[in-house]
Amino acid sequence: MTASPLPPISGREADLLRLVQAPGPSSPPPPNRRLGDIQSCFACALHMHQPTIPAGAEGELISHLQFMVDHPDEGDNHNAAAFADCYRRMAEIIPELIAAGHHPRIMLDYSGTLLWGLEQMGRSDILDALRSLTCDPQCQDHVEWLGTFWGHAVAPSTPIPDLRLQIQAWQHQFAALFGDQALQRVRGFSLPEMHLPNHPDTLHALVGALKDCGYRWLMVQEHSVETLDGSPLPQSQKYSPNRLLARSSSGAEASILALIKTQGSDTKLVGQMQPCYEALGLSRQLLGDITIPAIVCQIADGENGGVMMNEFPGSFQQAYQRLASEPGDGPATVAINGSEYLALLEAGGIDPAAYPVIQAVQQHTLWSRAGDPPNPESVAAAIRELKAAGGSFSMDGASWTNSISWVSGYENVLEPMQALSARFHELFDPWLVEDPSLTSTPHYQDALLHLLLLQTSCFRYWGQGTWTDHAREIHRRGLAALERAQQVRELVPAS
User: Fold this and answer.
1) Would you say residue 451 has pLDDT above 90?
2) Which of 13, 112, 262, 298 could bridge across to 275 with cysteines, CB 3.0–4.6 Å?
3) Residue whose C-alpha is closest to residue 238's, from 270, 189, 285
4) Cα-flanking dihedrals φ and ψ of residue 404, to 5°?
5) What integer is the mean pLDDT of 196-203?
6) What distance lies between CA 363 and its chain's CA centroid?
7) For residue 213, what pLDDT is reported?
8) 235 φ, ψ to 5°?
């Protein structure tokens, strides 16, 4: 098998920025529904991911799904066919429910490495199914894509300059598969592992990059955020929009709308459609002196575990049958997608500035120690003092579970990752000032590919061994790609 061609992860930066920053189409409100007709709603998202690993027959980069197919007797690899079916099955379920007179909604979050892997494997059946969900006018109002990091990187430990590269690489991949108009409709963002940074500069850079790249809202795990006084979110704020405030160590501020992912990471919550049944028991939420529909927002792996593989399709369909059986008089509970919900509120005259303000966890503790106004030196000193004092203070962010660290014990991955990033930017940043078209060249894209892949969360999830060995090999190849690019650079006349 020959080496796979490079994925479409760069080369159209200016073009795509103009596209996503332009006023784009917004999702319409649910059919025959007005804001006052809705008591509560629920929004479900399916997260799909397979990493890219250097494990082909000749050591080439392949999808882990391909590895599962090639090694069916190892671990849970026998689930490869079931996983593949999960990646395409919504293209069957959604049209069936529409034909039956229902109004289904689903949000999709597919990593860039998975989308590229499906291309590498020649799985046109899956990609065509996703294209029908994305581009067929019958399905567009029912399915919302969420942006994410191309390489499934965990944001808190990703080098700050690479956050934007991860975001833009996914946009390139998505547009190449489904078209520019489809990308223009992608307004919500899903962080891999639901891992929200709480270091001021990382969070500020993330929010700034998201907004620059056209995103209007972000899904966050409820225990990864707090109120401005450091308290956990009250119940009412979990079921309504919030504004996530990011303040850098220099005092600069940026904010983005946030929908709260409630409860834990258990796939049973989506697999058995718990958000629907929770929403049925909720009343409208008070926002200032008005009320708005409550929203239950939840995301789960779309393919991982027996519940999602086996129970979810039936549960999803049963939920819509239950909604159809509810009494027709009075405000109703409906399925909705994130951008659709926010558009519905805005169409009802609600100013997003009215939403309550939240911040990442530990921010109140940090700002109380750093002084006002803060500066990089006072923030760094406050972080050192708070860490030295012990307790639960951490600048590692928070994810869907705090029982797993993507930092502790992974110095053998993190240090090479940081070094590769520094070398990448040292070489390419000045070069890009001279020649912005550099991002469309193979030597840039090859180096970028390995930079993004090395940041994949899987290499710091499964413990030391095979997965950290994969990271070591990707790092080695990334250095070699930079060396080749350096040789090209030396042949380019100085401007």
Assistant:
1) yes
2) 298
3) 285
4) -120, 135
5) 97
6) 22
7) 98
8) -55, -40
| Distance of alpha carbon 9 from alpha carbon 473, whole angstroms | 21
pLDDT in tens, 377-434: 999 999 999 999 988 899 988 887 766 777 878 899 999 999 999 999 999 999 999 9
Q: How buried is residue 230: exposed, middle or buried, by Cβ count under 10 Å (0-12/13-18/19+)?
A: middle
**Which residue ranges make up each domain of the chain?**
16-360, 406-495
β pairing state of 38-48 and 332-335: parallel
Residues 6+ apart with CB under 8 A from 38: 30, 293, 331, 332, 333, 334, 344
Q: What is the pLDDT of residues 361-385, one digit of tens each?
A: 999 999 999 988 899 999 999 999 9
Rounded to the nearest angstrom, the gap between the alpha carbon of residue 191 and the centroid of all alpha carbons in its chain is 3
HEC assignment per residue over 114-183? HHHHHHHCCCHHHHHHHHHHHHCHHHHCCEEEEECCCCCECHHHCCHHHHHHHHHHHHHHHHHHHCHHHH
Q: Identify whether the C-beta of residue 30 lies closer than 8 Å to the C-beta of residue 336.
A: yes
The pLDDT tens digits of the residues spanning 204-245 come to 999 999 999 999 999 999 999 999 999 999 998 999 999 999
In this prediction, residue 29 has a pLDDT band, given cuts at 50, 70 and 90, of low
Q: Does position 3 have pLDDT exceeding 50, yes or no?
A: no
Cα–Cα distance between 369 and 390 in angstroms, integer?
15
Provide the token pair at 46: 């399916």
Contacts of 357 (CB under 8 A, 6+ apart): 227, 228, 242, 243, 244, 245, 255
For residue 431, the surrounding DSSP H or E stretch is helix 411-434
Report the alpha-carbon distance of residue 481 to residue 446 in Å, rounded: 6
Specify which residues 253 forms β-bridges with.
247
What distances in angstroms separate CA 193 from CA 116, 172, 422, 480, one per listed residue?
20, 22, 24, 30
**Strand 242-247 versus strand 225-227 pairing type:** unpaired
Q: Which CATH superfamily is domain 16-360 in?
A: Glycoside hydrolase/deacetylase (3.20.20.370)
Distance between CA atoms of 210 and 167, rounded to whole angstroms? Answer: 8
* pTM > 0.85: yes
d(CA 471, CA 469): 5
CA 409 distance to own-chain centroid: 25
Neighbours of 75 (CB within 10 A): 9
Reported confidence tier of residue 33, pLDDT bands at 50, 70, 90? confident
